[in-house]
Amino acid sequence: MGELVCPVGTGIKDCKSATLVLKLLLKTPMKLIKHCLLGLLAVTSMCGGAQWFVAPNATTGGNGSKPQPWQLQVALTNGSVIAGDTLWLRDGTYFPTMTNETRFPGEPLWFVSITGTSNNLITLRSYSNEWAKIDRPWAFGEFSGINLRFRDLEFYDSLKGNHPTNYSYGGYYTNGPWTQFNSKNSSGTGNEWINCVVHDVDNCWGYEKSIRGCIIWHVGLNGYEHVNYPVGSEFIGNISAWHMAEVINFTIASGSVISSNIMFGAGRTLGGTWNGDVAATSQYSVLFNYSYNLYPSSVSEQSFTFISALGTSNVIANNVSVSQTPVVIGDTNYASLIFTNNILVANSASAVMTFLNNTNSYKTVDYNSYFSRSNTLAYCDYTASYTFSQWKATTGFDTHSTGANASVPSDSVYVIPNQDQPKRAHIAVYNWSHSDNVIVNLSGVLNGGDTYQLYSAQDYGRGAIQTDSFGGTTISVPMTNLTTAPVLYGTSWGLTNPSAISPEFGAFVVIGSSTNAAHWPPAPPSDLHTIPR
After folding, report:
1. What do you get for the CA distance between the two ends of the chain, in Å?
2. What whole-number distance in Å separates Cα of residue 520 and Cα of residue 511?
3. 8 Å CB contact between 324 and 378
4. Cystine design at 116: which of 83, 102, 319, 456 (Cβ 3.0–4.6 Å)?
5. Cα(241)–Cα(326) distance, rounded to whole angstroms?
């Protein structure tokens, strides 16, 4: 029998080759089986899709291998990349050269044509122990650039605010806003964004399937720009800081889930103007979200909307909202509304609850806790303003709810485990007592002896504020001397660095030792400030 040559070390192209190897093994001398089994192991690792490599310093002659990686733009339009494949992005900063996209003429951006399938996505991810940073916006087609998964990547736009008017915004602007991830597919892209870092951009996402575990700051220049407009199927476990208008504005998917997010600092870079966190429509669930949008006494009070709910069959439950006016609900055609177990803190005497009408046949409003730092908190139904007892008697709502004036809740900590990365969690701290340090229980996230790093989401790009070994139950989290993220791109448009929200509130990220340490991103490099148009 002739010698069987196994492709050890190079990988076998597909799973059919694995079957062929197994058949050949039955006819192969024992001295070759060991070598062929090594080849079979390579097959097993490849059955989930091909592994391609991309590098910021790649030459034009690369073939996508680790020794000869592709340029990123080459990879994004390469027909060899198919459903189930993975693009590993090597460490460094990526800047586009392509300018022939008709939606944004003359401006460098990333154009994407590779496409996965709904049950077999193409993954783009920072390579192990490395971190990829990608400048400038992205353009997706209507039927291409869909069903992609972006994970552990950093995105920003060093030309924020300078782009031509976005075609979808009519005549609102002479400059922008662009959408950082722009798609023609208004029915939904099927794309996922997992544990990414996105900062200093205009409008951010629209029509995406899933955004999970991302850290986002400095989105927008004015009140028309959002973190996610419109939202797709889910926006879960993210931290959004210093956004301009609502984080969520308009839902397109029936049954959209907006859950376990931390949102703070709305409009602070414009001195406290514009809007708050969630303005959702259609059928959706808003669950276990934590927001904080209060301002220094020197800033005139603004009306911040936590929920502006217009639609059918909606559930708003177990949220904590802290702002000048935490909740406005304007409802017209609900099939049903459940508004329960929410904690709402107002900084003014403005209305904490507002309904278009007080018909309760299709509403469940109860078991909520309302607080006001002022002496009087109003409850409205668009026709009159009530005290809490009048509100209950008139509307029939909040039978088991509580209301307190000139008061705040007890100190509280909320830990949100990351659903895609073990030993990682987001932490929201309401520190009404202004303690210098707060004890946080992480026994459900870390194991005793784990090394962990703690980041403040107020200034995530600064790096870890604490590195230690986990004792098994709790850690002490500092609530003072926490810096805020500087505005990198947008100062020429009137944005100013936000004021601190600590020690009264803090948002944190903890990453344990068994995760990839390279996914702790450093601060954005300063040389990006000098990139010309």
Report:
1. 65
2. 8
3. no
4. 83
5. 17
Contact 350, 324 (CB under 8 A): yes
SS3 letters for 209-263? CEEECCEEEEECCCCCCCCECCECCEEECCEEECCCCCCEECECCCCEEEECCEE
What are residue 469's DSSP bridge partners? 451
Rounded Cα distance, 95 and 108, in Å: 8
Output the six-digit token pair for 473.
Answer: 């139950």
Tell me which H or E stretch contains 438.
strand 437-441
- Both tokens of 278, joined, read 């969630």
Residues in the chain: 533
C-alpha to C-alpha distances, 223 to 36, 37, 217, 330, 470, nearest whole angstrom: 62, 60, 15, 19, 42
Q: Measured between alpha carbons, how far is 295 from 269 in angstroms, rounded to an integer?
A: 11
What are the Cα distances from residue 101, in Å, to 108, 113, 172, 301? 9, 12, 22, 43
pLDDT value for 354 = 66
Mean pLDDT by 10 residues, the chain (533 residues): 30 39 44 39 52 96 96 96 97 87 77 95 94 93 90 93 60 61 84 96 91 95 85 93 87 82 89 74 86 69 54 83 72 70 81 60 85 77 80 88 92 97 96 98 95 95 93 97 92 86 96 59 38 31
What is the widest separation between alpha-carbon atoms in the chain? 94
Map 316-369 to HEC letters.
EECCEEEECCCCCCCCCCCCCEEEECCEEEECCCCEEEECCCCCCCCEEEECCE
Number of Cβ within a 10 Å radius of residue 116 = 22
Phi-psi region of 49 (alpha: psi -120 to 50; beta: other; left: phi over 0): left
Please name which of 131, 128, 130, 179 lies closest in space to residue 153, comparing C-alpha atoms: 131
C-alpha to C-alpha distance for 533 and 360, rounded to whole angstroms? 56
Strands (DSSP E) contained in 3-109 are 51-54, 86-89, 92-94
Q: Give the β-pairing of 412-417 and 402-404.
A: unpaired
Whole-Å CA distances, 326 to 353, 371, 408, 429, 443: 8, 10, 13, 18, 32
SS3 label, residue 17: helix
Distance (Å, rounded) from C-alpha 268 to C-alpha 270?
5
Residues 486 and 489: their CA atoms lie apart, in Å, by 9
Report the b/e string of 141-155 with b at 16+ CB within 10 A. Answer: beebbbbbbbbbbbb
What's phi and psi for 42, nearest 5 deg? -65, -40
